[in-house]
Recover the amino acids of this structure.
């Protein structure tokens, strides 16, 4: 089993996950006014299920939506 580590930055109490990384590519058809942030979590889960992947964490800001997958 691969080792994983959760590291905490004591200055800001931020945590990040460090472990085995995989790549998943999803290609989208170009569209006017496209916004990937409008894809619902349920829609992402349906796509990820195909490759036996799941969302284990999610965080959002004005600039980015970030998912941790397993």
């Amino acid at each position: 089993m691969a080792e994983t580590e959760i590291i905490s930055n004591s200055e800001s109490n931020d945590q990040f996950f460090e472990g085995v990384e995989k790549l998943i590519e999803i290609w989208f058809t170009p569209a006017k006014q496209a916004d990937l942030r409008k894809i619902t979590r349920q829609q992402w889960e349906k796509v990820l299920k195909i490759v036996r992947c799941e969302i284990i964490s999610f965080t959002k800001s004005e600039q980015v939506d970030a998912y941790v997958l397993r």
User: Anything to note?
Assistant: The radius of gyration is 15 Å.
